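Question: does this match?
>
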Amino acid sequence: QVQLVESGGGLVQPGESLRLSCAASGTIFSIDDMAWYRQAPGKQRELVAVITRHGFTNYADSVKGRFTISRDNQRNTVYLQMTSLKLEDTGVYYCKIENRNYWGQGTQVTVSS
């Protein structure tokens, strides 16, 4: 059974950083394309970043230059390093196996002064 477990969310002030982790099990992680999505209150879920099984990355324009997605195939884990956080980055962040539509349960990120 495929499982994705996110961690690392929290409450931070604008300008601070957080690193999210997503640990995968029940899948051959090294051949999966992985993604981070987020959903702000009252808004639709949106794609934040993708990393392919080959290590190619792509980002939403709103996070380019501030967020970095990476993966560790030995640990079956994908990361999202978030820097210079803004109020509008607030939301629930979800990990997803992009090519097979499996989702994690989400982790809350709140940016507030």
In short: DSSP finds no helices and eleven strands in the chain. The longest strand covers residues 18-25.
